[in-house]
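Supplementary Note 3. Input sequence used for the single-chain structure prediction.
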Amino acid sequence: MENRKMEIQTNRLDRGFYQYQDEFEEAALRVLRSGWYIMGKELKSFEEEFAAYIGARYCVGLGNGLDALWLAFRILGIGKGDEVIVQGNTYIASVMGITINGATPVFVEPDEYFNIDASRIEEKITERTKAVLVVHLYGQASRMDEITDICKKHNLRLVEDCAQSHGSKFKGRTTGTFGDIGCFSFYPSKNIGAFGDGGAIVTDDEEIAKKMRIYRNYGSEKRYYNMVVGTNSRLDEIQAALLSVRLKHAAELNEEKKRIAAEYDKRLNNPQIELPKVREGSDHIYHQYVIRCKRRDELISYLKENGISTIIHYPIPPHLAQAYEYLGHKKGDYPVTEACANEVLSIPMFNGMLKEELDYTIDVLNAFV
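The predicted structure, written as discrete structure tokens, is reproduced below.
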């Protein structure tokens, strides 16, 4: 192994570009030559294509995934005094979507699949609970049958954070279509990634879509006639055109990642490394391939010595973040969440990963003692 040391990044965004270089360059030049760069036909076209891909009636393009989240709760009228149930082991942006509006996040432990433990939701519902935010973490669909039943039973709004689950399905239905609003990020590392920031919401509710279009454009439906205090959060024409290219190849890009994951599943064989589990009925598109290891720091150092980069998603759970000290949580409040934060590790997983890179990563991981 020493004789064939390689340098392997956790993610290689350039490979995804080179796979469809001609198409990306044609799309970018088309927009540059058009003379129209914001809120034009490229955005309209992408919104229609993405809504069709997800299986929703409407898509509204936004500046980024965080805007999708906080605007979703704003439009649903959730704010000060309200509570929103969310899993404890998510990225902090999920929680910011709640708190930017003045609402309070109520954390629920994850299940063995890294998603919200549906069996623990009802015990957290109070008279102040207004919504559940489901995060399809790392690309695996959450248990949406039980969650939608709970929301209907308690008359709760349901928002889906699909930042990592573009095209992932639960029992044949695409994530983002179960709740009132599905929120997406097109950050460059996502399975459908832009070449800069970008985001969107999908919904079947015409009124929600209409309000979102008003909010994203300074609260204005007609220029200079401002109906509400909105924001500036618009998916620009170049990103929309580039995303249309990526969307056209979404199925093959997801399948490529699934093939890489299948090789990891089949060939990783180290008792110190726990592989990710996939729930029956849930689809996993492997935005990240996340292992667990109780000796994680040693494993990270060992992999680094052998030229393999890794990322921890996420080392500090939101309830212990400095930003949320005011919520009054302490270490030990959410032991399952905290165990995840101490043990999870994302290993190389990207479109365009070479066979020799995959083989090398597997051999190095299997040799960890």
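The first helix runs from residue 13 to 19. The chain has twelve helices and 13 strands.
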